[in-house]
Write a structure and sequence with these properties.
This protein is of the alpha+beta class. The protein has 2 helices and 4 strands. 21% of the residues lie in helices and 38% in strands. Strand 1 and strand 2 form a beta hairpin. The structure holds zinc ion.
């Protein structure tokens, strides 16, 4: 199973200040429009790895990317 992921261009407090990775579905639910598409990834760990090529502080969303969430 793969999912489509994006990274938020705006930093989010979660509670640290990070660029958060979300699934496309969750990003749309949250209304995140200022974002970079990461494309289809096998899981959130791969998505965060891709996001780190844009933002070194990229972190997975606690809700939609729990396995890549560091805090
Ligand atoms: Zn999310």
């Amino acid at each position: 199973m793969s999912n489509y992921y994006i990274v938020n261009n705006n930093q989010t407090r979660n509670p640290g200040l990070h660029h958060e990775v979300h699934t496309l579905e969750h990003a749309n639910k949250l209304g995140i429009v200022n974002r970079i598409s990461l494309g289809y990834c096998v899981n959130e760990v791969e998505a965060v790895r891709k996001a780190r090529t844009y933002y070194q502080d990229a972190d997975g969303c606690a809700i939609c990317c729990p396995n890549a969430h560091r805090g």
